[in-house]
Amino acid sequence: MENFRFKGNKLLWNNYSLDTIAKKNKTPFYLYSYNQLKTNVSNFKKTFNKTNPLICFSLKSNSNQKIIKEYAELGIGADVVSIGELKLALKSNIKPNKIVFSGVGKTIEELRYAISKKIFLINCESFSEVKLINSLSKKMKLKTKIGLRLNPNINAKTHSKISTGNDKDKFGLSKLEFKKVIMNFKNSDFIEISALTIHIGSQIKEVFPFNNCLNFLNKTIADLKKANIKIKYVDLGGGMSIPYDFKETKFPLKKYASNVYNFKKKNNVKIIFEPGRFLSGNVGIIISKIIYIKEGAKKKFIVTDAAMNDLIRTALYDANHTILPINRRKEIKSRIEFVGPICESSDKFGEYKKFSRLEESDYICITNTGAYGRSLSSNYNMRPLIAELLIKNNKILIIRKRQNINQIS
Question: What is the chain's mean pLDDT, rounded?
Answer without folding.
Answer: 93
